[in-house]
Amino acid sequence: MLYIVPTPIGNLQDITLRALETLKTADAVLCEDTRRTQILLSHFGISKPTYRYNENDERSVARCLDALKSGKTCALVSDCGTPCISDPGWKLVKEAVAAGIKVSSLPGPSAVACALAGAGITGGAFTFLGFLPRKPGKAARMIASAYGLDVPVVLYESPYRVVKMLELIAKNLGSDTPVILARELSKVYEEWLRGTAKSLADELSKKNKVQGEFVMIIDRPAAPEREDENDGQDAYF
Questions:
Q1: Would the pTM of this model clear 0.85, i.e. be above it?
Q2: Any idea what DSSP says for residue 13?
Q3: Which CATH number goes with the domain that contains 116?
Q4: pLDDT of res. 236
Q5: Are 160 and 212 in contact (CB under 8 A)?
Q6: b/e string for 85-113 if b means 16 or more Cβ within 10 A?
Q7: pLDDT per residue as tens digits for the range 134-177
Q8: How many domains does one find in the chain?
Q9: Least C-beta-crowded within 10 Å: which of 70, 126, 127, 175?
Q10: Domain range for residue 153?
Q11: 235 in any annotated domain
Q12: Is 230 part of any domain?
């Protein structure tokens, strides 16, 4: 049995009761970084064997799969948030499903969901790109393609590249493109920045040091209000 267990993105109190129970009863915990996971387990008084899961090492994936095939119950965690969502885990899940091993995905903390809920810009569709490629040209093409779908675009960005990403957005989508930045979500220094791609790039470039990973939400300029063409009638009927 393989459990996918989300862990807090910042505030340790955000872990769910079900996640704690799963970690307590699992035979082993498969981790992105055993040191970080040990801190989490120790905080909640949980003592379990931890093994590093390396998505880029076929032998690591195979070892974890062998443990599952032997009948062990394993909990898969990443450093924070939900595994497999811009974090390691999907290869093991894919192999486990193919091998007929039961997989259960627990609900829990996710930075993209947390940021969208607090942004106040959509209750419906959005496009999530995760971490973009480092090559500016490829990143620009992906953003332009996603932006063309007419829904908010969400991505993750590091403090070292956030200004360059904002400049890339301003250059390719327009300097007045609305952007919301959510930094250090659920932590003491949680911060929300709202403005245009250009204004936020200018603001952050003035700081001596930018810290914390960002959730970046690219919105669209407000459309001018107009009279309903159907004279108030529902267009679907």
A1: yes
A2: G
A3: 3.30.950.10
A4: 43
A5: no
A6: bbbbbebbbebbeeeebeeebbebbbbbb
A7: 999 999 999 999 999 999 999 999 999 999 999 999 999 999 99
A8: 2
A9: 70
A10: 111-218
A11: no
A12: no
